[in-house]
Amino acid sequence: MTSLKTVDAKHFHTEIPAKPMGKYVHFITLRVTESYPLFQTDGELNKARVRAGVSHPEAISRLAMFKRKQSTPERLTGRELLRNYKIGDWEKCDYNVDFSKTTPDCVLYGFAIGDAGSEKSKVVVDTAYSITPFDDSHLNFTLNAPFENGTMSRNGEVTSRINSQDHILPQVFFPSIVTLKDPTEAGFLYVFNNILRTRHYGAQTTRTGRIRNELVGVIFADGEIVSNLRWTQKIYDLLIEKGQIQLPDPLNEDYVLAAASEAMTQLMAEECIPHTDFIGSALTPLLTEIKAITSNETQLKAMLTQANTESTAYATKYIFKTTEKSKKTGKKATAAAAE
Asked: Is the dihedral of CA 108, 109, 115, 116 positive or negative?
């Protein structure tokens, strides 16, 4: 696989390390709803009461997109690609049922199979919040299930199959930072590709939930950076100060992208860690190079194969060895208890 020309090789490991080594890559992402997705728990949309902005102290309710609502669709996108090109132990791997423990998905995104072993995720995702308030970001719809003739009644009887559900509106923005710890180049491309490819999030993903991921930047650092909430609050400040929030009208995407880039640049200037930023015009050549790889079938397969080779080597050296050791320790403890 060809090495990236736009990123210094010092930001990547040559193999996946067993211990944290202090290399982080942060994908600065703006998630834009393009239909009516559902992010809910117990039948209600997830929301949080938080401060409106960094410099605007008033409290508002915001929609919340929990971390599993973000990471699960993205890792399933990667798993689908591995199956499509028959790379790695794709036949055995069954999400949340039987993990192969060797694929890039298992090693990078983690797994837990009770006594059969576990691996902590190297992809870190936190709850994302809508820029606009909850009241201006959702709408209640009435849902029904008609009969074959398209009506809600048959033989003089009216069906009770009718319900209502809150949906998130189109053109609602969720600033989200996806972090990959200790990346190899292939691992970086694998996670990057999953973010770019994933199109549906939330419940009922076969019928709604369309979301587009806009990459605002990529930041390499030796530690974690600002939170999703603080970035969202900073974006809100910039939009309010420029008079670019006119509720209940949806936000202008051009304004939001500009504010997101400016907010992240300002926040990174306040950080106390070394970092290399690809934001704004600096992101364009990197994004162009990434898309050239992911849109070319030959290069895409080479990347997936390399990522699988690295994850399999990691599993052989650390996961299977640890699992076998745990089994032996468990047998000794059982024998000692029996005596």
From this structure: negative
Report the C-alpha gap between 306 and 309 in whole angstroms.
Answer: 5
Q: Which residue range is the domain that position 83 belongs to?
A: 9-138+173-325
Position 132 in a domain: yes
Angle at the Cα of 8 (from 4 to 9), degrees rounded to 5?
A: 75
What are the helix (H) ranges across the chain?
Answer: 67-84, 104-109, 185-197, 228-241, 253-269, 283-294, 297-314, 320-338
pTM over 0.85: yes
Q: What is the pLDDT of residues 269-295, one digit of tens each?
A: 999 999 999 999 999 999 999 999 999
Number of domain units in the chain: 1
Q: Is 98 helix (H, G, I), strand (E, B) or coil?
A: strand
Structural domain contains residue 155: no
Looking at this protein, which amino acid is placed at residue 120?
K
φ and ψ at residue 164, rounded to 5 degrees? -130, 150
Please check whether residue 333 lies inside any domain of the structure. no
Structure token digits, residue 315: 């599993």
Q: Measure the CA–CA gap between 181 and 177, rounded to whole angstroms.
A: 13
Confidence bin at 214 (pLDDT 50/70/90): very high
Closest to 48 in 3D by CA, of 37, 61, 57, 36 = 61
Q: Grade residue 204 by pLDDT with cuts at 50, 70 and 90.
A: low
Question: CA nearest 288: which of 213, 196, 198?
Answer: 196
Within a domain: 236: yes
Q: Hey, what are 307's tokens? A: 């990522």
